[in-house]
Amino acid sequence: MSVCAWPLFVQAASIDASTTDAPLLRFHARDASEAAAWQSEARARLFALMMGGNRPDRVRLQPVVLRELELADSASRLQEIRLQTLDDRTVHAWIAVPRQPTVKVGGVLALHGHGGTGEKIVRGEGLYWYGRTLVEMGYVVVAPDIGQHDLQHTNWSLMGERVWDALCCVDYLVTRPEVDTNRLAVAGLSLGGETTMYVAALDERLRLACSSGWLTTVDNMKRGHCPCWNFPGLEEHFDFADIFALVAPRLLVVELGEQERAPGGFPVQIGRGVFERIQSAYEVFGAKPAVVFTVHEGGHVFVGRDFWPLVRRELGMPRTPMPDPGAPSGQGGSRDAAKPQSLDSGHQ
Ligand SMILES: [Zn+2]
C-alpha cells in the first residue's frame, strides 16, 4: 500500500518513533469525552489505513439470491447470496432466516476462521457450530466468505477488503424485513474473531460482539503466524487493545482457551495483559462490566460461555435452542455440532 496519501502522518510517525515506541493512536483518554473524540479519530484512521486511504463510499448492495435451501430439522431456511460491496467488488455470503417470521428478530454477523466458509457457519460444521446455534436460536444470521488471500486492490489491505465486505453484510442485514435493527451482534473465531474486532470497532450499530481465539498483541502475531493480519501503518498507530477499545462502551466478550498454542498462537498469558488494557478503556466510559474475558479449558475453539446469556438478553430469544447453547463445553450448541476440533492456531 502506498503511504503517499498521508505525508503529514508519515512525518509525524517518524518524529514520534524517535521519542517513544508507543503507537501514535494508543488509547490514553482520561474521560469519556476524550475517549469519544479519540474513537472518532481512530476509526477514521483505521478506515484510511485498511481501505485505500479513506472510508470507502457505500454502493448499492444489489443483492442476488443464488440459491435457496431448506435446513433439515430447522425452522430457518438458507439463502446463498451475492452483494455488491464496491463498484468493482462483490462478496459471497450465506444468510439464514426464519421460515415463518412473526416478529422482527435480532440479526447476527457470524464469521469463520482460516479454511472456513460462510456456508460452514450457517450449517454449523465443526469449529463453526456457533453459527448454526445462532440460526437455531431464531436470529437472522449472515455469514460472508472472508478467507481469501488474494488482494483485489493494491492500495488496500487483505483485512481491509475482508472487513469492508463484512460491514456491507451488516448493511444488508438491516435491510432485511425480518431483522430488528436495534438488535445486532457479531461473533467469530480466529480470523473470524479478528474480523469481529474490526467490524465491532468500526460499526456502532453492533451492540454486542464476541471475539474468540484472537486476543493478542502485534508483537505476538509476528512469531510465525500467517501474515495476512498485517498492513502498513497498523503497528505505527495501534496495538489490538486499542482497536478493541473502539468497541467501548458496547458489550464485548473476548475468549481464549488454556490450551492455545504458543508462540504464534494466542496464549492466555498474553491475552490477560491485552484484556487489562481494554478494560481500562471501558473504565474511562464507566462501563467496566460491559467487557468480559472468558478463559476456557479448551484450545482454539469457540465456547460462548459468557456470550450466550448476553445474546439472549440483548437480542431476545425468538426460539428455544436445542440443546442449551450455554453448555460450558462449547460443543452443545447445535444438535449436529461435532466435537470441536482444535484448529491449528498457528494458521488461525
Ligand atoms: Zn492468512
Keywords:
20% strand, 33% helix, 348 residues, globular, Rossmann fold, alpha/beta, nine-stranded mixed beta sheet, binds zinc ion, disordered C terminus, disordered N terminus
What does it look like?
There is one protein chain. This protein has 348 residues and is an alpha/beta fold. It has a single domain, classed as Rossmann fold. Helices cover 33% and strands 20% of the residues. It contains eleven helices and nine strands. The chain has helices at residues 7-19, 32-50, 118-123, 129-136, 158-173, 191-202, 218-221, 234-237, 240-245, 268-284, 307-315; strands at 64-70, 76-86, 89-98, 105-111, 140-144, 179-189, 208-212, 251-257, 291-296. Helix 5 (158-173) crosses helix 6. Bound molecules: zinc ion.
CATH-assigned homologous superfamily: Alpha/Beta hydrolase fold, catalytic domain
Fraction in helix: 25-40%
Gyration radius, in Å: 19 Å
Number of helices: 11
Question: H/E order of the elements?
Answer: HHEEEEHHEHEHEHHHEHEH
CATH architecture: 3-Layer(aba) Sandwich
Give the CA-based shape: globular
The total domain count is 1
Strand content: 15-25%
Number of strands: 9
The residue ranges in which pLDDT falls below 50 over 5 or more consecutive positions are 1-19, 325-348
